[in-house]
Amino acid sequence: MDVGKIKISCLILLLGILLAIFQSCKLKDRRNEVSITINLDDVDLNGYVYVKELNVRSFKVLDSVKVKAKGRFSFRIKQDSAGFLLLGNADNNFLTLQTEPGEKIEITLKSQLFQSDYLVSGSPGSSLLKVFFDQNKNSKSKVDSLGRIFNNSRESSDFTKIRARLDSSYNTISSEVKKSATSIILKNLSSLASVYILNQSFGPALIFSEKDDFELFRLTDSAVFLRYPTNKHSIDHHQRVHEIIQRQAAEKESAERLASGQTAPEIKLKDINGIEHSLRSEKEKVTVLYFWQSMCGKCRRDHPALRNFYSANKNLGVNLWVISLDDNSEMTQAAVKLDKIDGLVFNIIGGINAPLAKDYNITQDLPVYYIIGRDGTIVSRESSIDKVNEIVKMILPKNIMKLQI
Q1: Is pLDDT at 24 greater than 60 in this prediction?
Q2: Which of 97, 122, 147 is the last residue of a domain?
C-alpha cells in the first residue's frame, strides 16, 4: 500500500477523533451552562443589565451586558447544579429565575420594571416563580387600594370602624396569598422554586412560619433533598428542617418542665439598684415574672395595663418582677421611667441567650408572663397582661386567706 495514502488516512482518522472529542466537550459544556436570551418588547433599556447568582446567604455578580436600546441580548452562564439567578439593572429592579443546567431560557420584558411584566419559557422552575410573583402582584395591588382608603379616611368620624374593616380585608388578602402559595408548593414539592417560595414575605411578614407551617417545610425537604442531595440550597433547607425538629424537641421538654404545677426555676438577680433578690424568698406572695424588651411594641403597649394591674394588687400579696432582655441597661431604665413601671426591675445580660431566658424558654416572641404561686410552683405562662389579671384574680382569694391564717 502507498505510504502517502496511509499517512493521509491516519491524519483524517486523527482529525475525526479530535473533532469528536471537541464536539463531546462542547456538548458537555453546554450541559453545564444556562443560556438566557432577553427580548425587549417595546421596552427601552439603557445601561448595564446584570446576572447575579443567589447563594444561600449572599449574591455574586456573574456577568453583565451594556444595553443601548430596544432589541435582543443574551447570557451564557456556567452552572453545574440547580440554583437561582437574578436578572436586573439595579438592586431593587430584578426578576428571579430558578434554573437548571442545560436550560435555554427565553425572556420577554414588557416593562422597565423587570418583575412587574415579563414572559418566560424554557425553565419550569422560573415559570413556577412567575406564577407566584403574578399572584403576589395582584394581591399587593389590592393592599395598595386599602392603603389609599386608609389615608383618605383619617379625618373621618368613622375612622375606627373603617380601620377595623380595612384590617379585616388585609387579613383576608394575606390568607389568600398563603393559600395560593401553599397550592403551588404542594403541587411542586421537589422543585427548588418551592423552597424559595417558602421563604418569601407578603408585606412586612413572612408568608410561612416555621412553627405553624412546619409540615410544609418537612414535605419540601423530603422531596427536594431526595432530588438534589448535593445541592447547596437543598442542603441548607435540609439542615434548617433538622434544626426546627431539634428546637421543637427542646420546646417540648421546656413545656413539660415549665408546665403548671412544676416548681419554678430559681432566680437570683440584682435589680437595677444593685440589690439582690431570690425568687424562692418570695414564697409568701404570688409573683408575676414579666419578660420583655424596650424595643418590643407589644410589650410597651401592655405597660399602661401592667401599671394598673400592679397598683391594684401589690397590697394584696402580689409581687411584680420586671425582667428586661435589653442588651443595654440604660435603654431599660429609660423605658421604665417613661412608661412609669413599678415593681422590681432587672436587666439580664445576654438577652434571650442568657441562661435565665433559656431556663424559662424565652424567645423573641415577647412579652412573656409567668405567674408563680405562693408555694413556688408555676400557675401559668401567658402572653397578655389581661389574661394575667384574670388568673391572678382567681387565685388571690385563696392566697389572701392563707396569708391571714
Answers
A1: no
A2: 122
